[in-house]
Every structure is written in structure tokens, then in C-alpha cells.
Specification:
136 residues, alpha+beta, three-stranded antiparallel beta sheet, 9 strands, 15% helix, 25% strand
């Protein structure tokens, strides 16, 4: 197979699972190891070259280091990007599985990312009649 620039080089085989960030990770719900909702994925943190830096041939591909979450609704509506200090990091090593939802191998109670879910559960849902009962 060739292109206008010459022969196409096949992509190298990589160890592990290949994920499409937009399809498999972005805007996915994150559950802790007990299946309790923690947050949703708003952005990703990658290791690798700096933005706008020249990438020399043979440079290894970036590696996913963390899921980022936080208050991004206003920036999605009005544009822009929230400051990185406003985003909460969930290290990729804490992710136990990627499926329809992302499953963590740790408790959500110890993560700062779950405060919104806990606040909604305790302040809003718990006030609805029957809201304190576990549906399972």
C-alpha cells in the first residue's frame, strides 16, 4: 500500500489495550470499587512532549497518567479552559477497568473528585421521599 508521500509504514504493535480517548474515556461516569458514582471524566493528563514543541522522529507515544475532573460546565458553554488548579486528578493507576463506565480500584470516599456526587446525594436526593432507600 502506498500514499502520495511514499509507502505506508504499518503501526507498531503495542503492549496492552488501545483506547480511543474520545470514545472510551471522555464524559464517562467513574464508579468506585463498590459501584458508587464518583464523577465523570472531563479531561485527560498525558505525559509527553510540551505543547507546540517539535517532536523528533522516534519519540515514544504519550502515556495516559491521570483522569481530570472538575467544574467545567461554564467553560463548555462559554468556551475557554478551566485553570489546571481547578481540576481534580485521579491517577490512571487507580483505574481498574474501562467499560461502559470507568471502574476504580479504590474507594470514592477518599477521592476529592466525589464531593459533588456526595453533596447531591446528601443534600438533594436524600430529601426526596424514598431518596434514602437503596434501590438495590
Amino acid at each position: 500500500m502506498t500514499s502520495s508521500n511514499g509507502p505506508l509504514v504499518p503501526a507498531p504493535n503495542l503492549a496492552g489495550r488501545t483506547l480511543d480517548a474520545q470514545l472510551h474515556l471522555m464524559d464517562r461516569q467513574v464508579l468506585d470499587h463498590d459501584g458508587v458514582p464518583v464523577t465523570t471524566v472531563d479531561d485527560l493528563e498525558l505525559s509527553g512532549p510540551a505543547l507546540d514543541a517539535e517532536i523528533p522522529p522516534g519519540t515514544p507515544a504519550p502515556v495516559l497518567t491521570a483522569l481530570l475532573t472538575g467544574s467545567v460546565l461554564a467553560t463548555r458553554i462559554f468556551g475557554g479552559r478551566p485553570p489546571s488548579s481547578r481540576l481534580i486528578r485521579i491517577p490512571w493507576k487507580d483505574v481498574a477497568g474501562v467499560d461502559v463506565v470507568l471502574k476504580l480500584g479504590v474507594s470514592g470516599e477518599q477521592l476529592d473528585a466525589g464531593w459533588v456526587e456526595r453533596w447531591i446525594r446528601d443534600k438533594i436526593i436524600a430529601r426526596i421521599p424514598g431518596g434514602r432507600r437503596d434501590p438495590r
